Amino acid sequence: MSIGPLKRRSSWPSSFVTGLIGWNGFFIIVALALHEEILAGKLFILASIAAIAQVAFLRLLFFGLRLDRSLVAAAFWGGLTGVAAVIAETRVTNALNQHRVIWLLNGLYIGMAVGLFLRYFYRDDRRIETQAEAVGRPIDYGRDAHWLEPFFFGAVAYLIAFLPSSFALAVIILVIGAMSGVVAAGVSHFVIFKIARRSALPLLLCVMVGAVQGALSGLLFRPFAPELLLNPLAHGAIAGSLTYLITAVRGRALASEELAIDHD
User: Which structural domain, as residue segments, surrounds residue 31?
Assistant: First the structure.
């Protein structure tokens, strides 16, 4: 059975998606925190350019820079290229001038994260493939093949909860929702479900945690309060609860499928 490139986290298309999500997510979040939401559209373009340039560089020199072997190398080259991308963009636009140091630190953080994720995805995919070959089974990435789903779930949940009235707000909601979705997946899949796998408690905890995280994310939408039906924190709480509920239900279903395969 053919495995699509976006189901293999270490593929070139997946690497670019990883970079685009990271750069756009944190560029928009920092812009909102700095009350520069008016620049969201321009920052989206700048973040996308930085992501494509950084990922192309790191992937082309992946083995030469020893990203496959060294955690330090992945963090170093990721951080360096992240800062370099922001510096390059400050030379062609003044959008980052007012808080230049913050944007440079943001580029450092994003760059390091992208470098580390590229390394992790490469090594983990090779581990899965090696184990499958050792036992003579077809390669199956399991839940990892669905790594993009939480981003989609979060984006949809936030759009439903916030009901944006403008295109600009919709773009910001999509980005914040996507980032919230992956956090929700991490918390629900790897933390909450370890507490009580076979009861309804994990789902209840997911909704509660999601409400808290969502309310906090709602703080980012205070500048858009006049466009919203409810208080931004209320919209955020609804969005977070829905995001965690969807990702938790999906995570449990995928886990059940894996258990059924293992028993076979």
Answer: 5-141
